[in-house]
Each structure stands twice: as C-alpha cells, then as structure tokens.
Design goal:
Helix content is 17%, strand content 33%. The chain is of the alpha+beta class. The chain folds into 2 domains: 192 residues, Gyrase A, domain 2, CATH 3.30.1360.120; 67 residues, Elongation Factor Tu (Ef-tu), domain 3 (Beta Barrel), CATH 2.40.30.
C-alpha cells in the first residue's frame, strides 16, 4: 500500500459549543454534509472571493473540528480565525509537530498505529486516506505528487498562490469544498454569482508532454499570448491553471500550447463536471 508522510502540515483545532456555527458562517465548506470519517477541502476567502487560506477540515469530536493546513500559513490562519471569532464560544489553537500520513489504493488504511483515519473527499476515482498522529516511517512523496497530478488535485503553494485564485479556479466547487446550499460566508456573494452565471473561466487542467516540463510557474502560451500557468509537475505530467476559453480557441485553430518551449496537451480531469466552452470567447474578453 503506497503512502507518503508530511511534516510541513499543521492542525488548527476549533472546539466548543459554538464551533460549528462559527465555522459554518465563515468557511466555504458546508459542515452539514461533513461526515465523521471524512476530510473535506475548503477555504477562507477574502470579501472579494479570493482564497486566503486553504485546508482540509474534519470532525475531531463533539463540537470539535481540525483544520489541516500548510504549516507556513498556520499562524496567519489562526489569527484570521481569531478576528472572526468575536463572542463565539469556541476555543482555537494550533497543534505543532503533527505527522500527517496519506495512503492510497484499494487498502488505504493510512497507519497501523494511527489515532484517526479519514477519507480524503477530494479524490473521486481512487481511495485516499489521511491520518494524524501515526508512527509510520518511510513513504514515497514522489508517488503522492504523481497521484495528485493524475487526479487533477491542486494545492496552494505548489499550484497557485493564496490571494490569487477563486474557489472555482482550483475546482473547490467540484471537490465538495464549496457549499452552494448553505447560508452566507465570507466571499459567498462573489462565488455564488460565478456559479449561477457560469462565468468561471480559469480551471485546473492536467498537462502532458513528450518531454520534461519546465519549472512550476512557467507560463502556458499560445502564439506568444499567456493562457495559464504551470503548477506541480512530475516528469512529463503536471497541473496548470488555465483559461479554458483561450485553450478552446487554440484547439479550434490547431495552435500548439507551449509550457516554456515544450509543446503540451491539456485535459480536463476525468471526474470533473465542467467542460470546454462550445465556442471560444473573444480575445478581448478578460
């Protein structure tokens, strides 16, 4: 059973009588649909709808939640949560030195001595689990990278910068990271308008090439014009966030898409519900 270990993650615990109500009112994730054995993606947005912090959220007990996020953003995330807490009866704390184990395959029980095993709800075509506090050693982070790329799962830092992406850009609307039937949350108006009007144009696409891809952050271009940005890569495969209308225009015109000077193919993740627009939008539309 393949697995990978991560020491660059942190857990923020939120607990207390008002914990669920407090989080439900500020995060994109609909906690009403969060099962006890699952970790769902989510984000805390700016009022303009951009992702400020991304995470996986799970239940850790009655009126208690854990937010699994990058360790380097955890302090800022905690401070932002404290700003929103006001008089809510909730305790917020960071847990350091947490070992996160991710396992996948038909028998993805993440750790033999783990305290909690949760299904990673972002993955639709392979069973992936996360555990916290296990004592596993070893692991294969390169295999995890390849799995994440093959399934079109983007993460901040590797594939996009916080403050620069909407939830639709990174497929949170497709992976259960946005609750469109819940009440208001920070940035909700912008995200709901994008959903109902169908105006999401930047999307995560899977990149493939015959040669090794250039460094993350390289532009994807068509005839010298940028159409997206390359994120994570593993040899000749990678992820990109790209304008699907401009990619569609290139496909229709038979123009190659380049990552640096490497010709690439772009595909929508097989599980995703969105598609390339039937007609490419004009170049003057931004």
């Amino acid at each position: 059973m393949p697995f990978a270990l991560f020491k660059d993650r942190a857990l923020i615990s939120v607990s207390g009588p008002d914990a669920e109500h407090f989080l439900q009112n500020i995060l994109t994730t609909d906690l009403d649909t969060l099962a006890v054995d699952a970790a769902k993606p989510g984000a805390l947005l700016s009022p303009q709808g951009k992702i400020l912090f991304d995470f996986l959220i799970s239940r850790s007990g009655e009126n208690a939640f854990r937010l699994d996020c990058r360790a380097d953003i955890a302090d800022d995330f905690l401070r932002r949560l404290m700003l929103y807490k006001l008089r809510a009866k909730a305790e917020i704390a960071r847990q350091d030195q947490v070992l996160v184990t991710v396992a996948w395959g038909d028998d993805s029980s993440a750790s033999q001595s783990d305290s909690t095993v949760l299904a990673d709800a972002r993955f639709r075509e392979v069973a992936v689990s996360r555990s916290y506090g296990g004592a596993s050693v070893g692991g294969d982070p390169a295999a995890w990278q390849a799995l994440r790329i093959a399934n079109g799962i983007a993460e901040s830092g590797s594939d996009y910068q916080l403050g620069d992406a909407f939830p639709h850009d990174v497929l949170l609307d497709e992976t259960g990271g946005v609750g469109f039937k819940k009440g208001c949350y920070v940035g909700q108006e912008v995200v709901s308008r994008m959903q109902h009007r169908g105006t999401a144009r930047r999307r995560v696409l899977i990149v493939s090439a015959d040669h090794a891809l250039p460094a993350p952050g390289s532009e994807l271009t068509v005839a010298g014009r940028p159409v997206g940005t390359l994120g994570s890569s593993a040899g000749t495969a990678g992820l990109a966030i790209a304008r699907i209308d401009r990619v569609k225009a290139a496909l229709d015109a038979g123009q190659p898409v380049l990552a640096g000077d490497v010709t690439v193919s772009l595909a929508i993740p097989s599980w995703a519900k969105f598609s390339f627009p039937r007609e490419a939008i004009g170049a003057e539309d931004a």
